[in-house]
Every structure is written in C-alpha cells, then in structure tokens.
Write a structure and sequence with these properties.
Blueprint (H helix, E strand, L loop, with lengths): L6 H17 L5 H15 L4 H15 L4 H20 L2 H18 L4
C-alpha cells in the first residue's frame, strides 16, 4: 500500500494541476470572466467538484498557452470523475476543504 495515492489526493492533485493552468493564464478579459464563473461554480453547492472539473476542461480547450499542462489535466479526468462519484461524504468534504484553501488565495480579487 505504501506509495499508493488515495482518491482524495489524486483528485486534489488533478484539480491543482487545472487550477495552476488557470493561474498561469494571461491576465485579460478571458481570465476575468473565468474567475467570475469559477467563483459561481464554487458557491453552487453539491455538484461543485464535478462542475468545476468540467469547466476547467473547457478552459483547457479555450486557452492553449500551456498545452502540456492542459493535456496532463485532461488525462487524469476520467479517473478523477470516477473517484468523485464514488467518494464518501467525509472524503469529499476533505477535498472541498483543500480546494477552499486554494481558492481563498487564488480568487481573492474580482
């Protein structure tokens, strides 16, 4: 078991990859719009983990500034979706807490 990645960690790392992609986007109208949408998704409630992942896939397609990072995220998405679907409430809450912390630093403006 040593060295295995837990579903929560896998999902957290996948989302971190996508959010780093977002953070590295050039400042401008697209990034400002994306920031507002991400904030709305995050405040939406129950489906925010899945909705956010889907939205970020769309973002990867729109912005090709870092194709390797975008492809990295998109490659992990099928397993990410499965883990989110199967995850119990306690682990989903842990993941949301990690992402809340990330968002508190990333989305402070706007």
């Amino acid at each position: 078991m040593k060295g295995q990645i837990t579903p929560v960690r896998y999902c957290a790392e996948g989302m971190a990859t996508a959010l780093i992609f977002f953070r590295n986007m050039k400042e401008g109208e697209l990034k400002n719009s994306v920031t507002k949408i991400i904030k709305k998704i995050w405040q939406a409630g129950e489906t925010k983990l899945s909705s956010l992942a889907g939205f970020l896939v769309g973002l990867c397609v729109l912005d090709s500034s870092d194709r390797d990072l975008a492809e990295s995220f998109m490659a992990c998405l099928p397993l990410y979706d499965r883990y989110i679907e199967e995850m119990d409430e306690e682990n989903r809450s842990k993941l949301e807490e990690m992402l809340d912390d990330f968002f508190s630093h990333l989305l402070v403006k706007g």
